[in-house]
Amino acid sequence: MAQVGGPLRSIDPVWDRISHEAQTAVQNEPLMGGLLHACVLHHSSLEKALSYRFSAKLHSNEMSQIILRDIADEAYAKDPNIVESARADLMAIFDRDPACHRLLQPLVFFKGFQAIQAYRIANWLWRTGRKDLAYFVQMRVSEIFGVDIHPAAGIGKGIMIDHAHSIVIGETAVVGDNVSMLHSVTLGGTGKEEEDRHPKIGDGVLIGAGAKVLGNIKIGHCSRVAAGSVVLAEVPPCKTVAGVPAKIVGEAGCDQPSVSMHQLINSAPN
Questions:
Q1: CA dihedral in degrees (107, 110, 116, 120; nearest 10)?
Q2: Structure pTM?
Q3: 224 — phi, psi (to 5°)?
Q4: Least confident of 54-63, 123-132, 220-229, 248-257
Q5: What is the DSSP-derived secondary structure letter of residue 197?
Q6: Is 111 left (phi over 0), alpha (psi -120 to 50) or beta?
């Protein structure tokens, strides 16, 4: 007699698509088989794949891959918001980065995505009182990816860091949801004060390459910071600032600068 009522397989379109993309990639380039099986095809979920990638990239002689994988598994199990944020980050990169053609790419190849996911685990460690482990993760992320994010910083979801070279985000910085930033961005402090000393970036903000935002200042929702600018004063919502020091040079030009990724100052996107 046929059995009915057996366990149903959970449906995860994002993970199913990543797995299919990995299978196709192996068919097209068999030499990638070892990497893609290790990163994707040996795992049953996005959480497990993220945990593996975190541990594979950041382990060292001082901290084994097994220990780091256990830490990541615990973080994902105890705080589902971390995985929710990872999914939002993944889709943000796929939607905004013209060089991203598959969901597989950020997970396997893009250090901006990988660095943010490692930060999210470090932040969980920090919030649960395991600060030395959080500092270790911060150190390794800086060494491996060239991205230095303090584990106490607050970062929302839907984050894209394009190229992700020489990113610095300080201890008391706050970054909202759906923010995009390019390489060499600094969200830093000024002086030696120990209190709230870093920028607060609103939702939907676009920060251009090489921009420096310094001090406990607010960058309003859906604003743009032009490449190479040094921002030392508050920026109202939906404005564009540019220069050294940065000044308001116009409106943001669209409703969602971080999504359009439009960076030209004197013309609006099509």
A1: 20
A2: 0.92
A3: -125, 140
A4: 248-257
A5: -
A6: alpha
